[in-house]
Structures are given as C-alpha cells and as structure tokens.
C-alpha cells in the first residue's frame, strides 16, 4: 500500500511527506522532482518548452509506474489530485490524503515564487482553479486542514487517521 499526499500548491505535500515517510519507515517520493530528474529540466522549463498537456501526461505515466510499487509515501504535484483518472489510480493502490490549505495561506506561503507556472497568472484564474480543484481533492480518503499548523503536527495527525 502507498500513501499519496494531494492538495493545492503550497499545501506542504513534500515537507509533510518526508516527515511522514520517516515516521512510517517508508520510502519518500516527490513526483515533481522525479519528473524534473527524468526530463533533465525544471518544471517551468517543461511548461514553457513542451506545454502543460505534455507535463500532465508525464505526471500520469510516472504516477502509474509508482502505483505498481509498495510502501511509498508520494508527494504529488497540485494537479495530480485534481484529475478523476489519477484519483482512481491512487485509491486503487493506497490511501489518499488531502492537505487542505486556504487560498489566503497559499498566497502567504508562495509569495514571490517563480517555480510554479500556474501561480504566475491573474488572481481570478488562480481562485477559479482553486475552487474547481477542491471538488476533486475532497474525494480523498482523509482530509486534514493544514492552515497554521507545523509539518510535524500535520504528520502526526495523519498517523492517527491512517
Ligand atoms: C502544479 C503544481 C506543482 C507542479 C506544477 C503544476 C499544479 O506542484 O506540479 O507546477 O498544477 O498545481 P506543487 O503542488 O508541489 O507546487
């Protein structure tokens, strides 16, 4: 069984995932890092040179690959848990945990961030993206509110819910 962390950009998936993996003695995988390593490009470069559709395909294929393995804690990119097909893949191979962060907190945490192409657009579009994605994120097995909590406490909260 794997553990998948889903949620909006800046929800803390990677930070919490690393702590959780250590506590559970499971291997940690950061899906975005895996994509960058394989493509030998940063995410903004992939978006710019190959486009979002190409990135989403990569994301799905790598997710499928890891879904065949066992005992992984996987921090997904913010778009992974916002896709019905991906949610199915994750639910069939483990537990899906949504780190639910408010949009206000996202803006606070990601101020000045240039590594996330989807935050580099008008606020109205980001708000729409956030609202639409919430509907899918909420299909996770476990939901955790993460605003004003530290990663260690969030990981402990997840442990109690597993
Ligand atoms: C994305 C989130 C990013 C990264 C890419 C696209 C998204 O990951 O995968 O920029 O669609 O929300 P983080 O959620 O780790 O920022």
TrEMBL record:
InterPro entries: P-loop_NTPase, Shikimate/glucono_kinase, Shikimate_kinase/TSH1, Shikimate_kinase_CS. Its EC number is 2.7.1.71. Keywords: Amino-acid biosynthesis, Aromatic amino acid biosynthesis, ATP-binding, Cytoplasm, Kinase, Magnesium, Metal-binding, Nucleotide-binding, Transferase. GO terms for molecular function: ATP binding; magnesium ion binding; shikimate kinase activity. One of its GO terms (cellular component) is cytosol. Its cofactor is Mg(2+). The keyword Metal-binding applies. Belongs to the shikimate kinase family. HAMAP family: Shikimate_kinase. This is Shikimate kinase. It comes from Hydrogenothermus marinus. The gene is aroK.
């Amino acid at each position: 069984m794997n553990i998948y962390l889903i949620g909006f950009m800046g929800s803390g998936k990677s930070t919490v995932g690393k702590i959780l993996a250590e506590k559970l003695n499971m291997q940690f995988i950061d899906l975005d890092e895996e994509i960058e390593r394989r493509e030998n490009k940063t995410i903004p470069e992939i978006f710019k040179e190959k486009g979002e559709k190409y990135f989403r395909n990569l994301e799905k294929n790598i997710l499928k690959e890891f879904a065949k393995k066992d005992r992984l804690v996987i921090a997904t990119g913010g778009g992974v848990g916002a896709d019905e097909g991906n949610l199915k893949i994750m639910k069939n191979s483990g537990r899906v945990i949504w780190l639910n962060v408010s949009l206000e907190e996202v803006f606070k945490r990601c101020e000045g961030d240039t590594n996330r192409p989807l935050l580099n657009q008008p606020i109205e579009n980001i708000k729409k993206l956030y609202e639409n994605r919430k509907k899918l994120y909420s299909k996770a097995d476990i939901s955790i509110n993460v605003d004003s909590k530290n990663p260690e406490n969030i990981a402990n909260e997840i442990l109690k819910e597993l």
